[in-house]
Every structure is written in structure tokens, then in C-alpha cells.
Amino acid sequence: MGAIIPRVVTEDSASGAQVIGGSFIINKGENYLKRTPSSAGNRETWTWSAWVKRDAIDDSTHQTFFSAGDGSVRTNFMFDNTGYTNPGTIQINYQAGQGSGPYSSKCRRDFSAFYHIVVAFDTTQATAANRIKCWVNGVEDVLGTNAFPNQNTEWDVNNTKIHRIGMNVTDGEPFGGRYTNFYFIDGQALDATHFGYTDPLTGTRRPKKLTGNYTN
Length: 216
Fold this sequence. Notes:
- With 216 residues, the chain is an all-beta fold.
- It is built from no helices and 14 strands.
- The strands form three sheets. A six-stranded antiparallel beta sheet has the order 1-12-3-8-9-10, with no helix packed on it. It has a six-stranded antiparallel beta sheet with strand order 2-11-4-5-6-7, with no helix packed on it. The protein has a two-stranded antiparallel ribbon with strand order 13-14.
- A hairpin with a 2-residue loop joins β9 and β10.
């Protein structure tokens, strides 16, 4: 089983280094977390946010840090290590006839620190590139133009299918590392400013308390 350490969310402040008050550990291929919702939420609009720390790049083509769905239709958030020429790009993958899903434009190969990853999903948007947005450490990534979801598409995130942290739903492409300050917002597409801020003196990304009403 993964080790779980109580997290501490810090208040906003004007200075200080990155503060990650606790995390849970996923040992690659040995454990993962899972949940199957008893009822479906909004499958067109939601936000996923977490601090994620990778252990290493290894011989896995992909390292899936979040997955939802089943053997035929599923959504994966993963680090893509294909070819090892530009390892560690983030891919938002949908396995149901809409291509491989958009990629981030940068590789993520720092194993010494947490990445703050935010994915906002809103297929009600008329412009395809606005239907999935991704921020890493507070900076919006430029996602590739391939395979953005069709308008009003419902993906399997927030459906009554299995959701996993640390491995995809078909028992493959495991991830090893740490997570903390994990949030899932049902029914709203939020940007990274709702979950963290960048320290103006040190330039480090820090978590903050999520305040407000985020329910429909």
C-alpha cells in the first residue's frame, strides 16, 4: 500500500521556498489508488489539479499519473517517454477514436521537485483549443493541435467507471512518485491561479487554500 502523509496547505505569503506539507507515495507497479463514483458528475466540464513528483524516467513508454474509464474507452494523463529524444512531455490521452490526444510542448525531467499540474476540461467551448488547457507550475502549456475533443464530447472522467491514480485502468503504464494537494472540481473549468501561486521573491510555486463555492 502507498504511504500517506497528512498534507498541510499553507496560506499565501510574500516570501519563502516551496512548501509541500505532505504527500502520498506511489511505488511504481506495486500500488495505486482507485475509486469508482456511485453517480456521474459533469463529464463535459471539470478541473483536475495536483502537485506531482516523478521518481525517474525508465523504460516505460508512458507513465500514467491519472486514468479513468475501462478497457475500451478511457482517459489517461501521462508522461510520454517515447523514443527518449524528448522524454517527459505531458499527454492528455483519449482512447476512443479521437486520436492520441494533445501533448504539451515541453519535457519534464526534473525529479528533485514537484510539478503543479492543472488540467481544465470544457468541451462546451466553440474553439477546439479551448476545450483542454494545461498549466504546469502556473504557466499554461502550448498543447499540440492534434485530437482536441469534439464539441460537447463527454469523456470518462467523472463517469461511473474506475478512476485511478498511479496506473491506467488496464493495469499498464504505471507511475512512480508522489502526489499532494489533489483537487477535482466538478462542473467548472478553472485555471492554475485557483490552486497555487508563484512566490515573488524565490520564483517557486506554492500551494494555497482553495476557497469559494465550486459546486453547481
